[in-house]
Fold this protein.
Amino acid sequence: MFSGSIPALVTPFGPDGAFDEAAYRDLIEWQLAEGSSALVPCGTTGEAATLSVEEHFHIVAVCVDQVKGRVPVIAGAGSNDTRVAIHNIRAAKAAGADCALMVPPYYNRPSQEGIFQHFAAVATSCDLPIMLYNVPGRTVTDIAVETMARLHTAYPQSFVAVKDATGNLARVTQQRLACGGDFIQLSGNDETALAFNAMGGVGCISVTANVAPRLCAAFQAAWAAGDVATARTFHDRLFPLHLAMFTDASPGPVKYAMTKIRPGFPCALRLPMTWPSEASQRAVDAALAVAGLV
């Protein structure tokens, strides 16, 4: 259902902070032409936390409309309020998304039983497939392997995949053994995507793919074809860029990189996100050069 290089799309904002729909549609066309295998609108990199509900699902609908079924659209839709999460997954389905990407409740810090009951309520409210997004570095909450397996077992048509941004590679094997081979695992960290695939993953939801979609797609394609040497070569070429994307608060560095790759792309940030530091900009510039993108 989902595999390969999947960019977590940045959201273009003009100087006045308004969503630039034309630029977003152009970005989507470029991503598809460069080989991206699915798209994620309104995730963390898309500054979803700064979007109103109306903006959020308008942007998802724009993405769906522009894609026109050529690749899956995985819409960011999580919330720490179960009622809001239910509203969000229904809105994602109404917008035409193929799947909802959903974090566990953040800030509240529920127990594992609370996490299970939260997602069970969401799953029984809407039949849209769900990709769990486990990113304890942001949410504080960690979806335990046992909870993930319990959700997949109880609702196999709902919980079909995970975007794993724990950074713990052992989890890939643990989750594969607990959830079975039909459960899709995607890396949420570009820098460990090679090792993640070796452990049983099938792709990456990527920040770097915003600026290097062709290289990220070629990396994933080489791995899928069993060409480990070529995949490692792409990995090494992209590795400095993977790290540079987080030399300041994301998505500041990736939006700065977009100004180098796609001059004129509207890259304003909404507070509390700010433009990256000069040191971060230098790191991005150097990494773009190593990747051969400038």
